[in-house]
TrEMBL record:
GO terms for molecular function: ATP binding; ATP hydrolysis activity; transmembrane transporter activity. SUPFAM superfamilies: P-loop containing nucleoside triphosphate hydrolases. One of its GO terms (cellular component) is plasma membrane. Pfam families: ABC_tran. Residues 4-70 form the ABC transporter domain. InterPro entries: ABC_transporter-like_ATP-bd, ABC_transpr_LolD-like, P-loop_NTPase. This is ABC transporter. It comes from the Bacteria.
Length: 137
């Protein structure tokens, strides 16, 4: 929402959730607590993406479905976003599904589902997922 600050954007989700996470704590986790009163037009694309992820996390869902979460981001910001998603999965015991065309990202996943022509083609189990910081593309 372009007319709401970063904090207000996240609080929108908190208001409709049954068991929400703290908006201010999430802003700290995404590294934007000091920018909590900034509007989207005052944030970079990567910062806006992190606010959007925090807004989704605030609902405390059992699963996050992320469609190309790093698609329009530079490498450094992409790694930050992947770290956020991985931490959400690990710290809160949540499922995070990342849909991407960037196959390098799949190396952080526990399970990799491949689609071909709109159908499930194969499933791989990754016994040794990499930390996001070790993924290079």
């Amino acid at each position: 929402m372009h007319n709401l600050t970063a904090l207000e954007n996240i609080l929108l989700s908190v208001q409709i959730a049954k068991n929400p996470l703290s908006a201010e704590e999430l802003l700290k986790k995404v590294g934007l607590y000091d920018r909590k009163n900034h509007f989207p037009s005052q944030l970079s694309g990567g910062e806006q993406q992190r606010v959007a992820i925090a807004r989704a996390m605030a609902k405390n869902p059992r699963m996050l479905l992320c469609d190309e979460p790093t698609g329009a981001l530079d490498y450094k910001t992409s790694i930050q976003v992947l770290r956020l998603l991985k931490d959400f999965c690990d710290i809160y015991s949540k499922t995070v599904v990342i849909i991407t065309h960037n196959t390098a990202i799949s190396r952080i996943a526990h399970r990799i589902f491949y689609l071909k022509d709109g159908r499930l083609d194969k499933i791989e189990v990754n016994e040794n997922p990499l930390p996001p910081e070790k993924v290079i593309w």
